[in-house]
Design goal:
alpha/beta; eight-stranded mixed β-sheet; globular
Length: 481
């Protein structure tokens, strides 16, 4: 069999001020056809698994372009069309193919394209033909559209949040696509809209139990795959929202019944699934009152993993105004401050203007006398998902008023507590650690945290969805309306 594989992925916050252009993809990970490294990367799980299965199955694997960008604002039309057309040209050059395996996100939005993945999959189908098996791995924070389901034979989303099961879901995708190509199974899909949007933290119940429930259903009684699509609330597009996607073996009615049943179960759990966010001062009060530390505060509203800028100062300012010491915060995206810190050198004490540079939802810059504690060029942090480190660019550890701040030049969220430790800041010795992340920090920071508190500060990834100026989403959409 001839198997084509490639990737085009990012997550778009339509409320974020920074456009996502070609440079964002090249900064995070852009590999022309046939040049992806040997190791697995976040959205190239299908490619990695196809490589491993090639000898076992006697496949000829043709690797197309792999391109992924950190979450950000609207993808420019030029960036999307350029990368899309490159991937499609790679597919056209590989024809004829029996299987197409794609690594996608599911929540990419570009100028002129509310449903990038639907557009891409429809074009892939037109090239590959009706007989080819087309499958894609998705992030659960996706906008799954009818066009996506119609154009692909099967879509499989990560089940875990944080996304620690990228490889496992890619294994399932490849196994099922091969079974379809050899005539062993026939996909019958059902997509049910829950008419809500909820985050599902699978590190705790009921999210943990929901994952176990889905997995217990798969491979039994003709059920091939079950995906809980959590949705991505900061994407203002018609298909935004939580959905259940089920594939049965040749029985669409069975898939529909199960999808409806699971959707109703999730709707019944929605109050328990919602994360309770505290305002900044309430979160700080709770952290200070706790016995011991470190207490981790997750700044969800400024999470670069949700497309926010990562340079907001709302929590930092309150730490300094309240005289709270023995604290650390990061990563705070500020390439200008990083450059100045590198020029000043370790040990220098200088005036720095920190953060607050992107727009009103970043707050005002913090002006402070800072000591430069450490500098690391081209620093990387470990990732619990995807198997590859995440680039942070040049990083500086600066201290002011008893607060250690990690400044980074490449915008990214907090994934691993090593982002502090590498710079000589021991996070286990701090009372308070503030991380710019929504949930992906959890797999690492939970190992050292005495408590984790989720904070709803202002920001372009505000978890108080009613504060966001939606124009395109379909209503009703609990808890927005």
């Amino acid at each position: 069999m001839r198997v084509f594989t490639g990737t085009l992925a990012t997550e778009t916050n339509t409320f974020a001020p920074m456009p996502t252009g070609l440079s964002a993809f090249k900064e995070r990970g852009y590999y022309p056809a046939g040049t992806h490294p040997e190791h697995m990367s976040m959205f190239a799980g299908p490619l990695f698994v196809a490589r491993q299965r090639a000898a076992q199955y006697g496949w000829t694997v043709i690797e197309g372009m792999v391109a992924a960008a950190n979450p950000g604002g609207l993808v420019t039309r030029a960036a999307y069309e350029t990368l899309r057309d490159e991937l499609l040209a790679d597919l056209q050059a590989a024809m004829p193919v029996d299987i197409v395996l794609l690594g996608l996100h599911g929540a990419m939005v570009a100028d002129g394209y509310d449903d990038c993945e639907g557009d891409l999959l429809a074009r892939v189908r037109a090239i590959a033909g009706s007989r080819a098996v087309v499958g894609a791995e998705l992030d659960p924070h996706a906008h799954v559209s009818a066009l996506m389901v119609q154009s692909a034979d099967v879509l499989i989303a990560f089940k875990e949040y944080p996304h620690i099961d990228v490889r496992e879901r890619a294994e399932e995708l490849v196994t099922l696509c091969r079974a379809k190509a050899t005539g062993e199974i026939c996909f019958a899909p059902a997509l049910v809209d829950c008419e809500m949007v909820v985050p599902i933290h699978t590190t705790r119940d009921p999210g943990r139990a929901l994952v176990q429930r889905m997995q217990s259903l798969e491979g039994r009684d003709g059920i091939l795959s079950v995906s809980m699509i959590q949705g991505f609330a900061t994407g203002d597009v018609p298909d935004m929202g939580s959905k259940v996607l089920v594939y049965a073996d040749g029985d669409q009615a069975k898939a529909q019944r199960l999808a409806r049943e699971l959707a109703d179960e999730v709707i019944g759990l929605r109050d328990q699934l919602m994360v309770r966010y505290l305002d900044v001062d309430t979160a700080l009060d709770r952290a200070l009152a706790a016995d011991g530390g470190p207490i981790v505060l997750a700044d969800r509203s400024d999470n670069p993993g949700s497309g926010a800028s990562g340079d907001s100062t709302f929590i930092l300012r309150r730490l300094l105004e309240r005289g709270i010491t023995d604290a650390a915060l990061g990563p705070l995206w500020d390439p200008i401050a990083v450059r100045i810190a590198f020029d000043a050198g370790v040990g220098a004490r200088i005036a720095l203007r920190i953060g607050g540079k992107t727009g009103p939802l970043s707050g005002d810059p913090v002006d402070a006398e800072c000591t430069i504690r450490a500098l690391i060029p081209d620093m990387m942090q470990a990732s619990q998902a995807g198997g590859t480190p995440s680039p942070m660019g040049d990083c500086a550890l600066v201290s002011t008023g008893g607060v250690d701040i990690v400044l980074n030049a490449v915008r990214t969220q907090a994934l691993d507590y090593g982002l502090f430790a590498q710079l000589g800041c021991d996070p286990t010795a701090k009372k308070i650690i503030v991380v710019k992340s929504a949930q992906h920090f959890h797999a690492s920071f939970a190992k050292v945290a005495r408590e984790i508190i989720y904070v709803g500060a202002p920001g372009s990834a505000d978890p108080n969805y009613a504060n966001l100026p939606y124009k395109k989403i379909r209503q009703p959409k609990w808890p927005i309306s």
